């Protein structure tokens, strides 16, 4: 399986890099006393071109100091050959001088190579870094393990050739190619890459381009929700004898050519490829969940096995027989080498088969306010943040009255799930519109802090219907486990739609709300 290569590769990479770590630290002994910029100046013969880019971008001096918002910085550093190659590949630049004269671009280019926190390779994800670059973009990492070499690749563009050069204010990782900043929306990225022409043409035919053609950096779209697009490359369609989007439309919707109608099968086929929120490969790992799409059907992705499986168990695509062992390939997979593409609209991943809609099974669904980009922005920092009345305009799913609302992000030692929760104190009402959930019967689980005599006693309503008994948040927890999962009762959902959660106190007091969960019965 393709996924197996990455898991084995990770441990091989870790072992190889661990062996080399001592050599690297020995080669650069004493650098901890100097800064990132000191190293560039001392090695100007190798890095003078990028040093000029940092100077022109106005961030060179920043790399002499500590990062006030984190432990340090991480610089992905191209040498002079990498910069020259980058310029040769860009027709708008004939020389380094030309590039430096484009002030706006150089500002973005220099900042795109610097993360706002320090990352050793042992902390590299298989997906996006948790902290953005100085340009407020997210870089991704892929692991590759071949027979005689193992390496990291940033943004599927640049191999890391020297790792973990440590300084007083962060790390340098030398890369073999300069990173090309993501300036395209997901739609524009597809248009720029002809190997995805069938998918892009199908986007045009169905009219779903607005779902994937927006720039999160647009001030008018502040705190908009990014998307994840799953794309079949042309080679996948061609494998099944499909060479144009019109042929694909005929396969999916042979009796109805009103493709822009949201009830049309082809429209829903394409909208099924667009997921709410931005997710990378490592976000799917270890999780089995239904993900909401822009179609009338959620998508099932199971990351609990060696391979990340899409719509597992719905269709048998292939049978593999090795001696006496028979394996049924009953899922779609990711093309890992081509995935983890970042754009100004979110993320793009490539898949290995044509992904038709399937009715998913009911799975546990946990909702922790991740659908609110404004809340996700607060998650970047540890602390207590009051959400002001004027901030309500940035929120699409949360509302409250009767008391002040706070978002609290604690350290990794927190007992709260994902180390964060909402806090409200008084005679309040708080509502949360959760995304669509597969119809069926569920137990409703409220997770909240239940170890404080000043806490509230609350009642939960869903779509205006009272759920079970009250929850007494003054008891049930302990000093070691203050947050408790409380079974509120059961509910039956008959439609695949959003639902309104409303919580009111019977006895006013404080509520630290971690999440609400639905367990299939």
Helix percent reads 10-25%
Oligomer: single chain
Mean pLDDT: 91
Q: Give the tally of structural domains.
A: 3
Describe the biggest sheet?
Answer: 7 strands, antiparallel
**SS content category:** alpha+beta
Strand tally: 28
- In DSSP terms, counting alpha (H) and pi (I) runs of 4 or more, how many helices? 14
CATH architecture of the largest domain: Roll
Low-confidence spans: 1-30
What's the CATH H-level superfamily name of the largest domain?
Answer: FAS1 domain
Distance between the termini: 33 Å
CATH class of the largest domain: Mainly Beta
Shape, principal axes of CA atoms:
globular
**How much strand content do the residues show?**
25-35%
Reported by name, the CATH topology of the largest domain is FAS1 domain
Query: What Rg is obtained from the alpha carbons, in whole angstroms?
Result: 25 Å
């Amino acid at each position: 399986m393709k996924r197996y290569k990455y898991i084995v590769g990770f441990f091989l990479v870790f072992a190889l890099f661990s062996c080399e770590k001592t050599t690297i630290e020995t080669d650069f002994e004493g650098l901890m006393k100097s800064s990132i910029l000191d190293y560039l100046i001392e090695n100007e013969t190798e890095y003078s071109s990028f040093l000029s880019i940092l100077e022109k971008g106005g961030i060179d001096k920043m790399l002499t100091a500590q990062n006030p918002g984190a432990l340090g910085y991480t610089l992905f550093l191209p040498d002079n050959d990498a910069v020259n190659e980058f310029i040769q590949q860009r027709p708008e630049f004939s020389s380094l001088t030309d590039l430096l004269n484009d002030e706006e671009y150089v500002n973005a280019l220099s900042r795109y190579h610097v993360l706002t926190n320090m990352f050793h390779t042992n902390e590299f994800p298989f997906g996006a870094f948790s902290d953005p670059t100085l340009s407020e973009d997210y870089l991704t990492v892929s692991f590759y393990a071949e027979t005689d070499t193992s390496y990291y690749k940033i943004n599927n563009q640049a191999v890391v050739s020297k790792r973990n050069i440590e300084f007083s204010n962060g790390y340098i990782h030398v890369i073999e190619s300069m990173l090309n900043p993501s300036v395209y929306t997901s739609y524009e990225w597809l248009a720029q890459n002809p190997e995805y022409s069938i998918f892009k043409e199908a986007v045009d035919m169905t009219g779903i381009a607005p779902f994937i053609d927006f720039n999160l950096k647009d001030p008018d779209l502040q705190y908009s929700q990014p998307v994840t697009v799953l794309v079949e490359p042309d080679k996948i369609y061609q494998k099944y004898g499909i060479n144009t989007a019109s042929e694909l439309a005929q396969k999916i919707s042979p009796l109805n050519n009103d493709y822009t109608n949201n009830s049309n099968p082809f429209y829903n086929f394409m909208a099924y490829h667009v997921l709410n929120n931005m997710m990378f490969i490592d976000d799917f790992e270890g999780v089995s969940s239904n993900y909401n799409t822009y179609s009338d059907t959620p998508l099932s992705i199971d990351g609990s096995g060696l391979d990340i499986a899409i719509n597992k168990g719905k269709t048998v695509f292939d049978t593999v027989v090795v001696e006496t062992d028979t394996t049924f390939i009953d899922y779609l997979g990711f093309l890992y080498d081509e995935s983890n593409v970042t754009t100004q609209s979110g993320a793009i991943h490539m898949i290995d088969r044509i992904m038709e809609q399937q009715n998913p099974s009911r799975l546990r669904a946990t909702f922790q306010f991740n659908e609110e980009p404004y809340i996700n922005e607060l998650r970047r920092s540890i602390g207590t943040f009051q959400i002001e009345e004027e901030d309500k305009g940035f929120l699409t799913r949360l509302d409250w009255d009767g008391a002040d609302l706070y978002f609290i992000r604690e350290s990794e030692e927190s007992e709260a799930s994902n180390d964060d929760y909402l806090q409200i104190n008084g005679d309040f009402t708080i509502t949360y519109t959760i995304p669509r959930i597969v119809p069926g019967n569920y137990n409703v689980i409220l997770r909240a802090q239940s170890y404080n005599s000043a806490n509230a006693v609350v009642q939960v309503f869903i779509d205006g219907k009272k759920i079970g008994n009250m929850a007494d948040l003054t008891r049930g927890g302990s000093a070691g486990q203050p947050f408790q999962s409380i079974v509120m009762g059961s509910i039956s959902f008959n439609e695949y739609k959003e639902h309104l959660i409303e919580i009111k106190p019977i006895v006013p007091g404080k509520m630290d709300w971690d999440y609400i969960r639905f367990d299939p019965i």
